[in-house]
């Protein structure tokens, strides 16, 4: 088991190198010249442009720029933004908020998604099941920004129940609405996934056996039906955690959360390569770890799966 | 989500207020019962993360500009109408418009207790002008004698790489001379009558000695002499300004402080304003243009500002050059229905242009001869176009309008295109670029112009002078800068030089408007509309006013707790 985890963690190294190189190349190949945009319609004086190009090694060929960047990483210096702020600061500021938001969203979507899905699956074809299916379709069809805007205006501005935006020190209450918005689509997916697997498993042989040997209904549902239905759900949630950590540009924008999404968006618009590449790389690592956790969870859910 | 690209013009950030001091100020409130409260509340303002260190000569965008104008005081400041008043200066005088004698008031201090002297100004200006310091606003010192020697000379090749042609020879400009602690002289390389008008702009602010020890650290925690001091800068989140007790100019803070909150989305700001979480919104989102005046009532602001939207018509496009080209340029201007576009697309948040400047600038006129080409006149436009067609065929070429689409430009370009197709009977299409720098790249690459069509242009004044709309855009000197249609006309240059040497501002303005007549004859650009300040404020604040430059006059806002 430990060996397995160790081997998986070692995979981070090539993935890290590959990801930074690819990302750097992509950002580099993007048309346009970020330095030119810094000057607005007036343009920068050539001396100022020269100073920036010098500081960010922008006159060097691509591979040299990339090596400078790598050198920075290994000396724990990811470089500075155009404002002169260390990129590490930017990342350590953006990640915790997004992490909190992502966790809240994950809890919402799994608790409610699995709950409703289980309920609907056990009552297949009944009114509740049909109603929930229609609702989940509706949620999937609605773009996030529509849900976000409507909730913000109705619940925030008109009713005044929850804060309109998250503000400078987001707490649980101010993140509630954005977390719900962020969770809606995945909630609908989890619900449908759970429902489908529950419907399948309810008629499976092992469930019939469990019933036949006289287990109470709630034990049958929790130990046999639910546990076996969760494998596809866990896969989905694992991938979703990665998505949520990458931040939602739309949701973070609507609720003015200074998280990963907004930071990334602004960095892309400004052409701040160091920020884009560093932040995305951190996300890649998080993605790898999240997937490792998912793989380990499989073994817990299904004892037949073992990692030696 | 489309955060408006706040780099569309350029910094234009002076702050000030008419000196009709507000009745609600803390000072006069002695007789009022305590329940009324003094104005000690912290005013919250929607803003964004500054994009440069907070060093005045490096601050060329509006988010940082709002901070800098409030924590620094220059020789002079602009009031809401753009009129110039002395701030630190006692007097700025010249006999020949070329050598300016500046006298400072006594007793000014930076917030670290060091005095504001003539040297504070001269050193700051020299730092900004010295090439290797890379100050974004260095060009504001270009009219001072010795600027080129301090800046050096550079060339930008087709790849965008900068090459040094001449290294800077000195670190100081020969035109600046400290006479005493409170006096210095500025010698310009040629007479410029409107030079003092510029001195209220952020580029000309003084710097304390501590700045020169470590400019980087200073940019993170600047020390100024303005109405406020910077209390904290939480990046991407909020900047807090507190009143500066030692400030002794006219812009003294009338509130308990300012909190500039960073937003990435204008809709979020606006919703915060509606729910009372934010006091001042500087830009109402486009989605609320049609409704904000109703929703906010008296608290809505919708007034022209110093920003002009335009299209450049490059003469390097063969069909736009020569006599036939001139007719086409005029036809293209006359075939745009400015009234309809500003009303239907922007719900009146833009004002149709009448000239090449802006109505908030002193000397503006809506009756410059030749400006009838700005009236919508489809018949005349079609007639001109057809006449040009006789001389030199356009054929079935598709007219391209190039623009960046990360801001709200797409709508009007499409509307203009539709107009051209209907009125002129030609094919027209928008060529969009997802980001501003991609657009710039296409526009400026090789400086010879790759764009084969019209392109978007915009200009926000840095200081309230007609010159600021003409000199930096249509002169030979600006060919390497913002003269992006590469327009050159000797007669026009002569007019500007004459205006620069004029004895009075009135005289100068008359000459600038004569220079505009030449522009209307040549049409190197097509003025479209003036951007309005579309803003709003909450019920919790009073005396919120927006200046000529689109920025709120924060120091005069009052808020009772």
Describe the structure.
- Chain A has 308 residues and is an all-alpha fold.
- Chain A has a domain at 89-262: Orthogonal Bundle (MetI-like fold), CATH 1.10.3720.
- Chain A is built from 14 helices and no strands.
- Chain A has helices at 2-10, 12-29, 34-37, 46-55, 62-74, 87-122, 127-141, 144-158, 172-202, 205-212, 217-245, 249-254, 260-270, 273-301.
- In chain A, helix 7 crosses helix 9 and helix 9 (172-202) crosses helix 11 (217-245).
- The longest helix of chain A is centred in the middle third of the chain and has 36 residues, at 87-122.
- The radius of gyration of chain A is 24 Å and the shape is globular.
- Chain B is of the alpha+beta class and 561 residues long.
- Chain B folds into 2 domains: 15-260, D-Maltodextrin-Binding Protein, domain 2, CATH 3.40.190; 304-532, Dipeptide-binding Protein, Domain 3 (Dipeptide-binding Protein, domain 3), CATH 3.10.105.
- Helices cover 27% and strands 21% of the residues of chain B.
- Mean pLDDT of chain B is 87; it is low at 1-35.
- At the A-B interface, helix 3, helix 4, helix 6, helix 8 and helix 12 of A face strand 6, helix 6, helix 7, helix 13 and strand 18 of B.
Q: Could you tell me which chain pair has the largest interface and how many residues each side has?
A: A-B, 59 and 70 residues
What is the mean pLDDT of chain B? 87
**Rg over CA atoms of chain A:** 24 Å
How many strands appear in the DSSP assignment of chain A? 0
What percentage of the residues of chain B does DSSP assign to strands (E)?
A: 15-25%
**Largest sheet properties of chain A:** none
Question: CATH superfamily of the largest domain in chain B, called what?
Answer: Periplasmic binding protein-like II
CATH class wording of the largest domain in chain B: Alpha Beta
Keywords (chain B): Signal
Protein name (chain B): ABC transporter substrate-binding protein
GO molecular function, one term (chain B): peptide transmembrane transporter activity
Protein name (chain A): ABC transporter permease
């Amino acid at each position: 088991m430990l060996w397995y985890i160790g081997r998986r963690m070692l995979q981070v190294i090539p993935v890290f190198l590959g990801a930074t190189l690819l990302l750097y190349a992509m950002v580099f190949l993007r048309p346009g010249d970020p330095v030119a945009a810094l000057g607005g319609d007036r343009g920068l004086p050539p001396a100022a442009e020269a100073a920036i190009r010098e500081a960010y090694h922008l006159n060097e060929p691509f591979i040299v720029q990339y090596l400078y960047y790598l050198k920075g990483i290994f000396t724990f210096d990811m470089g500075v933004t155009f404002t002169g702020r260390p990129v590490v600061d930017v990342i350590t500021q953006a990640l915790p908020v997004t992490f909190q938001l992502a966790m809240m969203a994950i809890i919402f979507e799994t608790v409610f998604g699995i709950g409703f899905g289980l309920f609907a699956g056990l009552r297949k074809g009944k009114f509740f099941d049909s109603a929930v299916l229609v609702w989940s379709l509706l949620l999937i069809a609605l773009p996030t920004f529509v849900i976000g805007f409507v909730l913000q205006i109705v619940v925030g501005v008109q009713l005044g129940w929850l804060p309109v935006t998250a503000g400078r020190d987001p707490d649980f209450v101010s993140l509630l609405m954005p977390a719900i918005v962020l969770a809606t689509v995945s909630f609908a997916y989890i619900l449908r996934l759970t429902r489908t697997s529950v419907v399948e498993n309810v008629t499976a042989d092992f469930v019939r056996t469990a019933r036949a040997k006289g287990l109470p209904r709630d034990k049958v549902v929790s130990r046999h039906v639910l546990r076996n239905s969760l494998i596809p759900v866990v896969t989905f949630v694992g991938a979703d955690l990665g998505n949520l950590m990458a931040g939602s540009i739309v949701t973070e924008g609507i609720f003015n959360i200074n998280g990963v999404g907004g930071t990334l968006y602004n960095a892309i618009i400004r052409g701040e390569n160091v920020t884009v590449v560093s932040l995305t790389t951190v996300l890649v690592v998080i993605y790898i770890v999240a997937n490792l956790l998912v793989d380990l969870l499989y073994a817990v859910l299904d004892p037949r799966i073992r990692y030696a | 989500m489309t955060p408006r690209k706040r780099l569309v013009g350029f910094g234009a950030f002076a702050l000030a207020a008419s000196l009709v001091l507000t009745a609600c100020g803390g000072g006069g409130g002695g007789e009022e019962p305590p329940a009324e409260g003094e104005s000690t509340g912290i005013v919250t303002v929607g803003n964004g993360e500054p994009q440069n260190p907070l060093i005045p000569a490096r601050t060329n965008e509006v988010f940082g500009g709002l901070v800098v104008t409030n924590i620094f005081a220059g020789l002079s400041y602009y009031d809401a109408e753009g009129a110039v008043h002395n701030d630190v200066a006692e007097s700025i005088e010249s006999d020949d418009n070329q050598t300016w004698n500046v006298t400072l008031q006594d007793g000014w201090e930076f917030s670290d207790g060091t005095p504001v002297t003539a040297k504070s100004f001269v050193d700051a200006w020299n730092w900004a002008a010295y090439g290797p310091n890379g100050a974004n606003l260095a060009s504001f010192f270009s009219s001072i004698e010795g600027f080129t020697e301090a800046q050096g000379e550079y060339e930008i090749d087709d790849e965008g790489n900068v090459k040094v042609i001449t290294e800077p020879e000195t670190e100081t400009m020969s035109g600046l001379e400290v006479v005493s602690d409170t006096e210095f002289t500025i010698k310009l390389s040629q007479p410029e009558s409107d030079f003092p008008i510029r001195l209220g702009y952020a580029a000309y602010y003084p710097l304390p000695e501590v700045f020169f020890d470590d400019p980087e650290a200073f940019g993170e925690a600047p020390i100024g002499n303005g109405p406020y001091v910077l209390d904290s800068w939480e990046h991407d989140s909020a900047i807090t300004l507190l009143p500066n007790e030692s400030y002794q100019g006219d812009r003294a803070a009338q509130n308990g402080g300012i909190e500039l909150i960073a937003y990435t989305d204008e809709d979020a700001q606006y919703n915060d304003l509606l729910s009372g979480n934010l006091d001042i919104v500087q830009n109402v989102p486009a989605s609320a243009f049609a409704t904000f005046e109703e929703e906010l009532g008296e608290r809505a602001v919708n007034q022209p500002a110093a920003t002009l939207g335009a299209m450049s018509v490059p003469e390097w496009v063969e069909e736009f050059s020569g006599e036939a080209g001139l007719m086409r340029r005029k036809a293209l201007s006359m075939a745009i229905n400015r009234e309809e576009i500003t009303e239907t697309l922007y719900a009146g948040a833009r004002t149709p242009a009448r000239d090449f400047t802006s109505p908030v600038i002193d000397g503006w006129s809506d009756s410059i001869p030749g400006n009838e080409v700005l009236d919508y006149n489809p018949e005349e436009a079609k007639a001109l176009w057809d006449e040009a067609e006789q001389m030199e065929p356009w054929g079935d070429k598709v007219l391209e309008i190039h623009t960046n689409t990360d801001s709200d430009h797409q709508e009007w370009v499409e509307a203009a295109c539709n107009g051209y197709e209907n009125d002129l009977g030609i094919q027209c299409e928008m060529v969009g670029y997802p980001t501003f720098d991609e657009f710039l790249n296409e526009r400026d690459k090789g400086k010879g112009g790759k764009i084969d069509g019209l392109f978007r242009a915009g200009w926000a004044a840095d200081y309230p002078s007609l010159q600021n709309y003409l000199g930096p855009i249509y002169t030979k000197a600006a060919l390497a800068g913002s003269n992006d249609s590469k327009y050159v006309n000797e007669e026009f240059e002569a007019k500007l030089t004459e205006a620069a040497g004029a004895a009075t501002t009135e005289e100068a303005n008359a000459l600038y408007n004569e220079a505009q007549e030449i522009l209307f004859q040549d049409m190197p650009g097509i003025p479209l509309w003036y951007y309005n300040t579309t803003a709003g404020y909450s019920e919790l604040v009073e005396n919120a006013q927006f200046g000529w430059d689109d920025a709120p006059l924060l120091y005069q806002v009052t808020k009772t707790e």
